[in-house]
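Any chance you could type out some protein's one-letter sequence along with its backbone structure tokens so I can compare the two?
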Amino acid sequence: FWTGLAGAALPRAGRDYEEVLSVLACVSFMFTLALIDDDIPIKPADFRDDCRVQLKRQIQIKYIDKVIPNVGLVVEFYNFVQVKDALVYPGDGKNSCGEAWVKVEFNLIVFRPAVDEWMVGSVAGSTKRGLLVSLGFFQDVEIPSANLRTPYVYDSGQGMWVWRFKDEETKETTNFFYEKDELIRFRVTAVKFPDASWPKEMRLKKPMSIVGAVDRDGLGLGVGGRKTDAGKGLLSVSQ
């Protein structure tokens, strides 16, 4: 869903823009609204402009494409809930320049899929631990080998995981490789955030990660149709 929108020319203002944001926030469970209460600065040079325009710009700079711990990845500003009083502090010309700090409540569109939600990504690679999956705008998705469809094996020569599919009619076994860049449908088993007690470097390296599985009918490779070409390594099981 998000991959399709990401490739489109999205409107940046007006009614169409609000409708797109509403779709992002409400249609897919993987996106939700997060209510934030924060003090947002406005520089003296921007006092003459519409304060909401400046506040929105500062909020986008501070939050978009960043992970809020235990909340999720912020993808867009949604709306203002309340713009409260502003306080202007004396500037020293170094650390502060007389900014007005405005207390604001606002909603952000946040990416945080629900457990057991189905998603589509692309295989980014294989390790001995399992598969690495990319969603395009989010890279930290891992499918541990224990969550692959059985029976499976790691081909060290190819550096890929393989599903050893056995045809019940012919009793023949065919190897299907989880090749790089192939689309894969998986379900979410966990959304993880680093513990606050971890060193800052570790928390910044992977502020959010998703654990997935392809252990049910309808999950796996070959998204969009059933294929059994072992050379291409594609397979999709219908629900």
